[in-house]
Amino acid sequence: MEVSSVLESEDKVDITPMIDVVFLLLIYFMFLPLQQEADIGIKLPSNAPPAESLDLPSEHIVEVFPNGLILLNGAPMDGINDRNMNRLSTTLTRLKLSSDRAGIDTVVKIQADPDSPHQRSIDVLNAAARAKITKVSFAAYGE
């Protein structure tokens, strides 16, 4: 009788310590990300909207080609030998007025081909000056 009760007690497994360990691991992994965030000093992104919207300037790209062709935002402008560039100046003036009404700056970026005549870039600068655009930048061709 005693032998069977001893054998019977060895068949039962006490799972209480295993449940305790599982709960401890669960609590550890629940609070681990919070502790890591506090230790690193970063904030994880939230679904809150951005604090403010950025007002980007109205940027227009003027391309100068080796044959003297001028493109404003991809549209051809005055003839290749026209030094006054009235159409470019008029278009830039309209774009500047439109940007001024919206309250944003107008920026003209000149992308001149390395083989283009320098005079054409100067003509574009003159057209921007007639349009009263003061923010002009140059960029490497192909940017």
Automatic annotation (TrEMBL):
Signal peptide residue numbers: none
Recorded topology in the membrane: Single-pass membrane protein; Single-pass type II membrane protein
Keyword Glycosyltransferase: no
Keywords tagged on the record: Cell membrane, Membrane, Protein transport, Transmembrane, Transmembrane helix, Transport
Highest taxon of source: Bacteria
Chain ranges passing through the membrane: 15-34
Compartment(s) of residence: Cell membrane
Pfam family, one: ExbD
Keyword Protein biosynthesis belongs to the record: no
UniProt protein name: Biopolymer transporter ExbD
Species annotation: Coraliomargarita algicola
